[in-house]
Amino acid sequence: MSLPTFPSSSASATPIPRVFKPRRMGPGDVVRPTRAEISLANLRHNLQKLRRRSSAPVWCVLKADGYGHGAKACARTLERAGAAGICVALLEEGIELREAGVTLPILVMGGYYGNAYGELLDNELTPVIYDAGQLEQLASEVNYRGLPPANVHLKLDTGMGRLGATPAELQSLVDVLRLRPELKLQGLMTHFACADTSLESIAEQLRLFDELTTKLRAQGCVADLRHAANTAALLNAPDSHLDLVRPGVGIFGVEPNVGSAPELRPVMRVVSTVIAVRELSAGQSVGYGATWTAQRPSRIATIPMGYADGLARSNSNRGHVLVRGKRVPIAGTVSMDLTTIDVTEIPDVRVGDEVTVLGSQSGPLGQDTITAREVAEIEGTIPWEVLTDVSRRVPRFYREA
Ligand SMILES: Cc1ncc(COP(=O)(O)O)c(C=O)c1O
Question: Which CATH superfamily is domain 268-399 in?
């Protein structure tokens, strides 16, 4: 078997694609009844609600496969529903959306392009750049291809301390922009470090962003699109909306601060089914490490979902799921592919019963919801990670409702 080679972008016209993407399971690939249901209606609903809260157009952040929801289907839906643009982290993510037929502007925010500026231009993706060397590389590729000036957005570090030109580095970017007619400065962006916790820190970062913008303008570098706001800033700080907003998690129905946008609706439900039921006597234990022992005669059901699917091991003996509309505890250690739940309180539970791991369920015993925030608290993380953790083995089923 010969391995694919990775030619440089300006090398001979080779048909070998350079960007390879791992494929996620599709509904037709799987036998196992574990799945994620994505409500496109709720996705559209959230976009409309966020558009109403924003004074600027909404560019939806669909990095990490649309926060685990499937970027292609989400992008197509949001494009039709009135999104003004899409933001992704990786070049590969942008290419995937172009191949899916998305025609909206796509901003690649991750700032890493290797030597793939050719692919960036071929796919009409707009790069976020923070370094003079990257600007030079992009300009050379535009020149080599004889293309019209390429749009770029500069990222300015106003306090995140992660990516972005620092005030001291700004002049080197200005020097390249002024010398290279192949580049058009379309945007200036920054990112907030504490948008969900501190209005003061938003104000301070905005102040510095304004200051840097003024300095750039004085040197002839004027951008039409200035942007900074993620979901929390969109909801908490109207001053931060500028020329466009970049919500991610809010599009998927998660409030960054509880109560800040109760009108948003969760987009993902994760469900499985009971595949085995057993009766245990008091004293019998369950699972790896025998961490759960029946205190009374108990009924244990097994679901075909484990930590390799995104149900983190930290849920062992702590998390809950819903069966027949009622909350039941996870009993024992979550395994890689299987999880055991204590269904002693569910009288006639059977193989085939639906089990909701994330989202709402109604049934004969009631109605309840497991939120991404609740799971995040158990796992010691944030709702963003709960959503992106739902793994490639779990097929996404898209529902219009
Ligand atoms: C640069 C940038 N903008 C916007 C977002 C969207 O953030 P959120 O999901 O909190 O709305 C992110 C996500 O981390 C980001 O990295």
Answer: Lyase, Ornithine Decarboxylase; Chain A, domain 1 (2.40.37.10)
